[in-house]
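During the reporting period the student researcher (J.K.) took over the structure-prediction task from the postdoctoral fellow and processed the backlog of single-chain submissions. One of the processed entries is reproduced below for the supervisory committee.
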Amino acid sequence: MKLGLILFLIIPFHSLFASEMDSITRRYESISDSLLFFNDHMNTKIAHIINKANEEDVCSLDTLDKWTRKTLTARVDKVFIFSPLQLIADKSNKIDKLHIKFKDSIYKYVSFLESPVLQTFPLAPLISLNGHLIGSDKFSHFLNLGYEYFWRMQKGDDLENVLNYSKFLEKYFWGGISTGIISHADLVANLQGLRFFGRFFSKGVDPLTGDDNSLRAYLDCRGNKWVQLREFDFSEYVDQGWDEGQNCNAYRTKRITRKVKRAIKELERRSGKNYSCPIVPTTCKALKIKYSNVMKLILSPECLGS
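J.K. obtained the following structure tokens:
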């Protein structure tokens, strides 16, 4: 009865989230890159948005936004709400993926009471995107939350407020309270999604460079029709900051942190390899340069201190 009540409470709550993942346990295994596969899917979806918007109206931003929202953002799948690209990543048999069971993961010592969600729902698979090992959940952060945060800024919020809001939700809503995991990599994916939608709608300035987004626009209105100016490429957005083995997680309690570290130390003793985050500390230097104006809001303390 108690188990049923807990599940009754957490399933609707967790339906708002993408799943968690373990980027540590299998990270030294080889995996084929999926960059071209997902670039093709994004460009196909962008072409669909353009066609639908052009059928309905003459270069209307509202119509473009409507079809963008319908095509790229969240869809319900059982009890989860995932972006369409995450559903493709989770279900496609055309890409190389690494699956990790809870009992084999770095979370295996975390109890049900500490994180019912981790023990109830499967971990997201890992893929290689532009050479970076990421969880499929990052597509939902890039598209769902990137879209939301872009429009928050268009309504008058500034970048610092939006990133603080992103951090607050990750700590108290998306991850910390529900799963016990606070992912700094999620925060980077959120920010990169915000950058993408600024360029897609050709509004505002790039939050990292300060350049006008029209300079990197994907679309333009020509002859009363939307046309695509350039192809989408995930390599513009995905970096080591999306990798939870480089941009380290935090955990809700010290007890959960100790249990995760225990599992990691076991991996290191068995293999003789380093599994402690950041796996390659030198990569954090490039991340701190790239995100210099916002690094304290999206990079982990471990990465900032490397």
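The committee noted the following: Residues 31-304 form one domain.
J.K. will present the remaining backlog at the next meeting.
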